[in-house]
């Protein structure tokens, strides 16, 4: 069995195992079963997901094809997998941790914006002097609203795609979501690929708090794409932008998650900018 280097990091306690695989040689070894073993919090390293750090030139055909739809060609690609081994298109906390790792390893120049490839397309990250990282998460796409339920309770859910699917439910109290040990019920016709479900309460003006049940990982302490979906749904509800339109001016919300706090701006040019911390906590060797 080969030995592979790994790193561990988190963004607002949404935690990840990173596998540097610059030339793509471990691709075939990273089975769903191995991802599950790496993410196991008792028998493995533990994490909400695994990110393979690979040069885009070394990507397999499918992911190459995704990136060819987007310009310019980024040097690095975030190959994200949930803790159950399933692939996801995008991870807002993960991409900051991914960028932090590239920066700390001297693999990117952090004096300007850095483009990173994902299955949702290219995302650009910017480093601030204060140590936080801002990700241009692209445009929010609104879909058909539906209902989510934690029986016996059910709520109307706003459908927002941030590169991956989200159902945002405004609740009276975050406790209403219960233990979230089970996946909330959702409309499979609206979300045939599954969905991340966010529960939101208002905390103040342009300030909300959320819990999330992530597709493929269960309840996590934070979700960057989820926080962006929550911000957009809240801004629409607060009439900063009529549904299907953009805000008249840039609008910023604070989004509290169980693992910390994120700041999100929806610009009048329809970009969603996610700002938050990214921390590396460990590194070592694994046989996968
Ligand atoms: N935690 C992430 C999202 C990870 C992927 C998600 N579970 C999915 O399957 O879409 C984030 O910070 O955005």
UniProtKB/TrEMBL annotation:
HAMAP family: DAP_epimerase. GO terms for molecular function: diaminopimelate epimerase activity. Belongs to the diaminopimelate epimerase family. The record marks 166, 214 as: Could be important to modulate the pK values of the two catalytic cysteine residues. GO terms for cellular component: cytosol. It catalyses: (2S,6S)-2,6-diaminopimelate = meso-2,6-diaminopimelate. This is Diaminopimelate epimerase. Substrate binds at residues 14, 82, 92-93, 164, 196, 214-215, 224-225. It is an enzyme of class 5 (isomerase). Pfam families: DAP_epimerase. The gene is dapF. Homodimer. Pathway: Amino-acid biosynthesis; L-lysine biosynthesis via DAP pathway; DL-2,6-diaminopimelate from LL-2,6-diaminopimelate: step 1/1. PANTHER family: DIAMINOPIMELATE EPIMERASE, DIAMINOPIMELATE EPIMERASE, CHLOROPLASTIC. Its EC number is 5.1.1.7.
